[in-house]
Amino acid sequence: MWQMANERRRDFLKFSGVTAAVVASQGTLFAKRDVMQIESDTRAYPNANYTETLYRNEFGLTRGTVEDTGYAYHCSHCQGNCAWEAWSHDGMVTRENQSARYPSVDAKIP
Q1: Over its length of 110 residues, how does the chain's per-residue pLDDT go in tens digits?
Q2: Can you list the pairs that 30-39 forms with residues at least 24 positions away whose Cβ atoms lie under 8 Å?
Q3: How many whole angstroms from its chain centre is CA 18?
Q4: Do 74 and 60 form a contact (C-beta atoms < 8 A)?
Q5: Is the torsion defined by CA of 99, 81, 62, 64 positive or negative?
Q6: Can you tell me the distance from the alpha carbon of 53 to that of 50, in angstroms, rounded to the nearest whole number?
Q7: Which of 76, 80, 81, 96 could be 86's S-S partner, Cβ–Cβ 3.0 to 4.6 Å?
Q8: Domain spans of the chain?
Q9: What global pTM score does this model have?
């Protein structure tokens, strides 16, 4: 019985030693070396302007006009009474944002 307990202790000490060595190296043990520095990431992509234009157009389409903006609720029986600002296009809601800040209910919930 003492033999088995001694082996478990020995394995634990080995594992603890390796863990302490990794922690003591402060992450430099597995750090990448000779990392290439990139000056501007937009020049690396040939279609960056096309992609940015595509997303801007999509945002403009889903954002709608001032007349298409309003406030909405998600459920008529909701007790939270959350304020939502909604945008619509052709009668359909395309985008919504919470339009108010609410008090924290629990420190664990952001």
Answers
A1: 456 566 688 888 888 888 887 777 766 666 667 777 767 666 666 777 888 888 888 887 777 777 788 888 777 777 777 788 888 888 888 888 887 777 778 888 76
A2: none
A3: 32
A4: no
A5: negative
A6: 5
A7: 96
A8: 60-74+82-96
A9: 0.40
